[in-house]
Design a protein that fits this description.
By secondary structure, the chain is an alpha+beta fold. The protein has 3 helices and 11 strands; from the N terminus they run ββαββαβββββαββ. Strands 1, 2, 3, 4, 5, 6, 7, 8, 9, 10 and 11 form an 11-stranded mixed beta sheet that branches.
Length: about 220
């Protein structure tokens, strides 16, 4: 069932569960855009839904969509100018050197392998990636309290492919469950830390047109 956080005549914000595709892919699984279009069709509205902030499949959180082309262009322009404030909560494997700080890197996307890598500024095709983070007290279910994991709150300044995942992993701090970038998936007894097709990363806050919308990550008590 579609989890609507906010809706008006021009846009809609919905919650995407970890494991769901944001947009139609190669599989036959129901994606979020199709779900919103079906919802609008049932309301006798034009079945248009343009996604503004796509989330990776294993990531949960808030997704903004426009209801018409004009609004899509407006929101996309805000996104490009970094006027949409996007914040995330995550659990990382390890502990950062500082409790808060800023990461600035250059990333290069490999579309064939669907990964991104940290590279030098002069690498052809590299794009600057920036985020700020702050370590928080961990309130996560069933995680050991021995310093293996840290919960962090992240303000995403740019929006690059797999940006948060790559920037933390490149510092030896991969997202919990993110095996693509070296994150731990199981504990010493072979039990999953979090759900299947899920990583401990949630788009938990989104500010658009001066209003902020928030959700609580699934893994928090």
């Amino acid at each position: 069932m579609l989890d609507i956080i906010m809706e008006d005549d021009k846009k809609i914000i919905v919650y995407k569960k970890a494991g769901q595709l944001s947009q139609s892919g190669k599989s036959f699984d129901l994606d979020l855009v199709s779900e919103v279009m079906t919802y609008r069709r049932k309301k006798k509205e034009a079945p248009y839904a343009a996604i503004i902030n796509r989330l990776d499949r294993p990531v949960s959180g808030l997704v903004l969509m426009a209801k018409d082309k004009k609004e899509a262009a407006r929101l996309s322009a805000l996104m490009q100018k970094e006027h949409l404030n996007k914040e995330y909560d995550a659990v990382i494997c390890g502990k950062p050197k500082a409790d808060e700080g800023e990461f600035v890197d250059y990333l290069l996307k490999d579309g064939k392998e669907n990964i991104s890598r940290k590279v030098t500024e002069k690498t052809a095709g590299a794009k600057c990636a920036r985020l700020r983070y702050k370590a928080l007290e961990c309130e996560c279910r069933e995680l050991p309290e021995d310093g293996l994991f840290t919960m962090v709150h992240i303000q995403l300044i740019t929006g690059r492919h797999h940006q948060i995942r790559v920037q933390f992993a490149s510092r030896g701090l991969p997202i919990l469950g993110d095996i693509k970038y070296g994150g731990m998936e199981f504990d010493e007894c072979g039990r999953r830390y979090i759900g299947r097709n899920q990583i401990a990363l949630c788009a938990s806050s989104l500010t658009v047109d001066g209003k902020t919308y928030t959700v609580k990550p699934e893994w928090i008590e």
